[in-house]
Prior knowledge:
This protein is an alpha/beta fold. The protein is about 40% helix and about 20% strand.
Amino acid sequence: MEQPIKVLMVDDEKQLRETTKKILENRGFQVTLAETGEEALEKLKEKPHVAIIDYKMPGMDGYELIDRIHGQYPDLPVIMLTGYGTLTSARQALTQGAFDFLTKPCDISLLSSRIRDAYQHGRQHTVAAERTVGDVMIPIAEYTVLHYSTTVRDAVSALKASFASKMATSRLMETGHRSVLVTDTDGVLVGLVSIRGLLRATIPSYITAPKPSMADSVQYRPAFWSDMYTHQIRKIADHEIKTVMDPAPATIDVATTLMEATYMMLEKNARRLAVLSEGVLAGVIREQDLFFEMERILAT
Length: 300
């Protein structure tokens, strides 16, 4: 993996700055914060690779800051991230030399992707080489991992939290993972708990069991289903997740090409793959990560 990409984040909203810093650092970026344009100009001495700036700030606004940045560091790529986005303001930002213009709320996966693009643009001034699984995956630190003795009840709470925490502010959002990884006592990946898997676990076994040929066409009456969902959920709530988990996702190496990852997902009818680096679990690549990469390629 390459050296961490150094990002200068400029925004007068404290919660957004700090939340963005935390999430981006979990994804491997090195982030420096600035509250104002004047402070940002001072932080340029730290030689960031990419700057993310807000449009509307007290004192120096985003457009003036772009001009000042490029006056000192003409090759520094700038991404404007703002809650006041219009077609006119986007055109103005791009005309003034911004690498990209993104409106809030912005999915953190898209923002991460555009930071990497800006870094490649600033470093090479050419179309970046095709990226690998390791470049677009979700690092394992970003994924929820549970021990296989965890109860279904606690797994449901953890899975819900993986969604709830993604809307960190009204202007920053991140795609929920829709699953949690399951490991054994030795930390080995042994399974996966997903929403679909939990739903599957609520279905009583006798409903899906093979029926005598004469009963193949049996139709259950509406009363048969009454209150069954609530009953089954409460029945499995304190079971260990190893009794309801799906098999562990297939693994792929961090250096694998994205086409091979795409092929593997489709062949295995999988929505995600576990990513290994030198045999150690390093992250997860999901179908939406490949989709974001598709969007990035079409946008360049």
